[in-house]
Amino acid sequence: MTGEPLAIGEQVLALLDDAATSSTYKPALLVAMLDRAPEHLEDGRMPVRELAERVVELYWPQSRAYATTGRVLVQNQSGGQATILRDLAAFRQEAGVDAITIPDGVRRSRSWEQLVRQAERTLAEWPIPRLQRPFEPFLYTVPWPFRRQGGFTMRAYRESGAAIELFPGVADAFVRLAPLLRPFVVRWWSEKAAALNRAEVPDASSLLSFEDFLFGRDRVALGRVAEGLLDLQHGRCFYCATGVGTTDREVDHFIPWSRSGDDGLDNLVVACRRCNNAKRAFLAGPRHLEPFLERNRGYAGDLESLARERSWPKDRPRTEATVRSAYLIGADLRTLWECGGSPDKARLQPYRTAADALRSLLAPA
């Protein structure tokens, strides 16, 4: 299998097209790999533990009761619930946690550690060895023993290194293609989950709100950190620097969510509605990247305090890896967005005109 990004992307789409609707583990695993790829560009080795943590994060909002039925959605066609989702729902009930985002205190608990370990085992035993079927392996190799009819043991898995080995070029392809592949896989996941829950999603018009529920796309939830972030911005829009009121403020993913799925506090800024709507899924130009990097360095302690206070996820190393890969990997023909000093003066510019400035800002210290 060639390591060319386009060829890898086409094969992933063919893989999804061939996949059955028996469960949603395949898209969950693919999204987790896309989101973790920026951290493994050099070594090409992806620990299953990291994938398990990300899969649990992805399923977390889906483990809440769905509003119209008061029950957790089914994501397995066999008649039972998907194991990871079942364990998450039980964890929520026992801990009495209904939050859309995962509280920081929950992440530090022993029960959470056990939950992630069980998810790791589930991934290692079932979806990871089966994801690439019916094709020949083209994304990664599975180094632990596995047979079609069983044979998995935790001891053999641990002795193998507990990580999948990516084929050359796969991590790079995932980083380059994430803005296209990730929204596609998320929509595919939503459609398959809808097919498993026909009563909750009777027609296509319900799919967008259903997708928002599945992936925790709740502006009210993001609003929990808006005030604290706005304090660090002295009450002004991060992009145009105009004053922002409570009715005009929106929380923006600096590196667009479609590129990384990074909801961490280090990737969030507050913008006025006009700037947020204008920026959309574009990468911001160096005029905005520089103060963003300075904010994360200069207010590191404040961001840590805000994350604890609001029980909001924060993973600065992951955000930094995502920022570097988003700007430094990919075609130079990408378009960047910059606000010209006021919301009505936004402009787009070719990446190549700002490439030197971006590389300078992101050069290793």
From TrEMBL:
Keywords: Endonuclease, Hydrolase, Nuclease. The keyword ATP-binding does not apply. Residues 224-277 form the HNH nuclease domain. GO terms for molecular function: endonuclease activity. Pfam families: HNH. InterPro entries: HNH, HNH_nuc. Coiled coil: none annotated. SMART domains: HNHc. This is HNH endonuclease signature motif containing protein. It comes from Patulibacter brassicae. The lineage of its organism: Bacteria, Bacillati, Actinomycetota, Thermoleophilia, Solirubrobacterales.
